[in-house]
Amino acid sequence: MSDWRSPKLAVSVVFLFNGALFGTWASRIPSIKQGLQLSASELGMLLLLLALGAILAFPLAGSASDRLGAAKLSKALALLVCPALIVVGIADNVIWLAVALFVFGAVHGALDIAMNSWASEVEKSLGRSTMSFFHAMFSVGAGLGAGLGSISAWLALHYSVFFILATLILLPLLWLCWIPWQFNNLDTHNHKSSFQLPRGSLLVIALVALCCAIGEGAMADWSAVYLSDVLNSDHGQAALGYALFSVAMVTTRLMGDRLVNKIGATNTVRFCGVTALLGSLLLVASQSLYQAYAGLLLLGVGYSIVMPLVYSNAANNTQMKAGAGLASVATFGYGGMLLGPPLIGFVAEWIGLRQTFALFALLAAVVLAGAWAFNQDKALVCKNQAES
Fold first, then answer.
1. How far is CA 35 from CA 4, 99, 155, 159, 255, in A?
2. Considering only CA atoms, which of 104, 77, 112, 106 is closest in space to residue 88?
């Protein structure tokens, strides 16, 4: 093994790879909708099937990760997700697309659990926070995949061809992941794959994940609508709002581990909760586009580091094995992503969009109140002391 192919690099590549493939798929959704003449409701149901596949795969992936090893499972699933995406591209009717998306969602979701479990092992071996950087790599990969997808659409390249080319371009990256990795945390006697509800402090962490995911998912679908309908911005100005939110999130994630290592996980979550609270209040009170932009920037910072710390703490919890803990909180996170956009729509129909966005302040308050449950910094310190 070359010295520069470190475990941190290997995990970073897996996150980048998975994010890029998901961005590749997401960028061509309009083309698939048009190519198969899907209605909005049909597309919505297909997207729900993708999410359902992921949620059902979580407990299976968590159990397999604990029994077989997170690194081994991550590598295998990274290879499987490529043909799964290609099958999505070549599906020529709604039925086959539904099956393909369910499988793609399951493999993508399973890889999400496995790679986060591997990331937590590397984090423990290093004795310092690294999870925020790994999640930043996923975001960078998603942006890369979306960018390539936009170019392929501009070139009028059929999405099936693009999916094949994208996997061929990205597959060589996995060579960087093929490193020896042994972590003495396997549970060879655990054959359970059923979902386990989090409890105690892990339940608090799962609720924080739910609130953060609702906000993040709603920003993706509703921030541009808010800027357009409430502040009367044009479509370009409205789209810029979510771009600013995303840039703030990725930038903060790249710096997040330094912050966690300096002030600890609990104080970092408190910082994120306060920042998200201020951002949501500023966004709701905004009378100008620039005030709204500032609110979205603060929200991007506030939401950025929470989910990486959720995954890290779930993997380090003492109540269940790492894979099972990750599966339990990931279900809450995905549930929040699914619930957020429709929930905002239903409530906005009732009380108005500006008033509905005030709910994000309540979600941020839950994040702030649940910060006490994040004690990953203590676990890493104990790990360092044990190995000294």
1. 44, 17, 16, 9, 41
2. 104
What is the spatial distance between Cα 278 and Cα 281, in angstroms, rounded to a whole number? 5
Residue 187 and residue 209: Cα distance in Å, rounded?
Answer: 26
Alpha carbons 169 and 344: distance in angstroms, whole number: 38
Output the six-digit token pair for 299.
């929200």
List the CATH code of the domain at 201-387.
1.20.1250.20
Contacts of 210 (CB under 8 A, 6+ apart): 332, 333, 335, 336
Q: Which two tokens stand for residue 27?
A: 């960028």
User: What's the pLDDT at 259?
Assistant: 92
Is the Cβ–Cβ distance between 120 and 311 less than 8 Å? yes
Residue 214 CA neighbour count, 13 Å, CB half:
22
The token pair that represents 210 in the structure block? 């739910």
CB 348 within 8 A of CB 221: no
CB distance 130 to 8 below 8 Å = yes
pLDDT for 120 equals 87
CA distance 278 to 177: 40
Give the model confidence (pLDDT) of 179-220 as tens digits.
Answer: 877 766 555 444 454 557 787 888 999 999 999 989 888 887
Look at residue 126 in the predicted model and tell me its pLDDT.
Answer: 84
Residue 335 is predicted with a pLDDT of 79
What is the Cβ-side half-sphere exposure of residue 69, based on CA atoms within 13 angstroms? 10
Question: Is the CB of residue 317 less than 8 Å from the CB of residue 201?
Answer: yes
> How many whole angstroms separate alpha carbon 295 and alpha carbon 306?
18
Domain ranges of the chain: 7-175, 201-387
pLDDT at residue 385 greater than cutoff 60: no
Please give the average per-residue pLDDT across 10-14, as a whole number: 93
Same CATH fold, 201-387 and 7-175? yes
CATH topology of domain 7-175: Growth Hormone; Chain: A; (1.20.1250)
Contacts of 30 (CB under 8 A, 6+ apart): 153
Cα R_g (the chain), whole angstroms: 20
Tell me the angle at which helices 70-90 and 7-27 cross, rounded to the nearest 10 degrees: 20
- pLDDT tens digit sequence for 318-371: 677 777 778 888 888 877 877 777 788 888 888 888 999 999 999 999 999 999
> What is the C-alpha separation between 161 and 150, in angstroms, rounded?
14
